[in-house]
Amino acid sequence: MQVTVTAFYKFVAIADAEALREHLLGFATAHAIKGTILIAPEGINATVAGPDDGIRALLAELRRDPRFADLVSKESNATEMPFGRLKVKIKREIVTLRRPEADPAREVGIYVKPEDWNALIADPDVLVIDTRNVYEVAVGTFEGAIDPATRSFAEFPDFVAAKLDPARDRRIAMFCTGGIRCEKASSYLLAQGFPEVYHLEGGILKYLEMVPPEQSRWQGECFVFDERVALEHGLEPGTYVMCEACGTPMAADAPRCPTCSVGDEP
Q: What is the pTM assigned to this prediction?
């Protein structure tokens, strides 16, 4: 069975979250779609999967709403359904940072297209930061990128306060899986006085889709939050699996989990 997976988000004011939730829950259910859709006053964020015609119908339905007319989505394929059920939730934020000064609807950094990303991060004056969590970075990251060693995105401001200085770090480029975290992080850094902030448009997934492997500066695989676990160039399924004991991503041929050591010889 061929399944289409789509990921999308949009920072836009939403005042009717409950009504939107009920509509999308019914529409997605009717089209055999599973996955997660988050709705908050600041926007919408989703990764869902289903039959190709169902996914296309959902995207068309969203784009009929003027708030989502320019919604950008990223599609990939799976050989089986990567989600167990459908969840449509109302949250305080579509990506949790807990810093109201970070408002991407008001101000964000400079978008960098995947084809221009290599040149930017090759510049020695540019500080490259991976805004994802430590277990995601362990699966793969860009050559030379700084790992903030966070276990949740809400810890990112603590990393900024401890390690970055707007007087010294004047050009910063950030990236994340699909673009949402680095977009919000760019808004936060601008609010903190950092003068020149860039972020990878479409995130790692769009980079792996658009940039040929022979030109890539990506090292490893890209962790994704579904049963595929990780993707490679061309958005093909990777080699990682999830530890059944603790949920840590691990190489399929690893003798034991790096976190809980399940698999160790007695």
A: 0.91
